[in-house]
Design brief:
Elements (H helix, E strand, L loop, with lengths): L1 H13 L18 E2 L1 H9 L15 E8 L10 H19 L12 H7 L5 E8 L5 E8 L11
Parallel strand pairs: 1-3
Antiparallel strand pairs: 2-4, 3-4
Helix pairs in contact: 1-3, 3-4
């Protein structure tokens, strides 16, 4: 599910989905493939009940915590726990991306990680806190976008 949504978002930015307005078209952005090593890095970054991204180089990483309803005693699900995070990262670019598509603003970092046309691999992990009130989401990407270079 995470991989499909990531690829769907890349198609939106590439202009291949009709009726989408707002972001500047990208042309062809290749689909990403799931990488189990990156998924393991995302999992390891959450050990100890907190997210630690100090060891990410040479990769890129995005992290987010999402509040869950207090009565949320259901199993972890893509729709509830993870999809809102990917949509949040997408909105960063939708709201803040410049026409030149350069990665030159800190407020588009997660979007730039997700949309980086040079990135072909992704691995994500979702975990809930013990009390089930927060979902922690981390994605690792094969390569980092370069500052002052086009994202796509």
């Amino acid at each position: 599910m995470e991989l499909q949504l990531a690829d769907d978002v890349r198609e939106l930015a590439s202009g291949t989905v009709e009726g989408i307005n707002g972001l500047f078209p990208a042309g062809e952005i290749p689909d990403v493939t799931w990488d189990c090593d990156l998924e393991e890095k995302a999992w390891k970054s959450m050990q100890g009940g907190r997210v630690d991204l100090n060891f990410i180089w040479p990769h890129a990483a995005s992290a987010d915590m999402k509040s869950l309803p207090l009565d949320n005693i259901r199993p972890v699900s893509f729709e509830v726990d993870f999809k809102p995070t990917l949509e949040k990262w997408w909105r960063e670019g939708f709201i803040n991306m410049n026409p030149d598509k350069l990665y030159n603003r800190a407020d588009i970092e997660d979007f730039a990680n997700m949309m980086n046309a040079k990135n072909l691999k992704i691995g994500c992990y979702t975990e809930r806190t013990k009390r089930q009130c927060l979902a922690m989401n981390v994605c690792f990407y094969g390569v980092s976008p370069k500052w002052d270079e086009p994202v796509y």
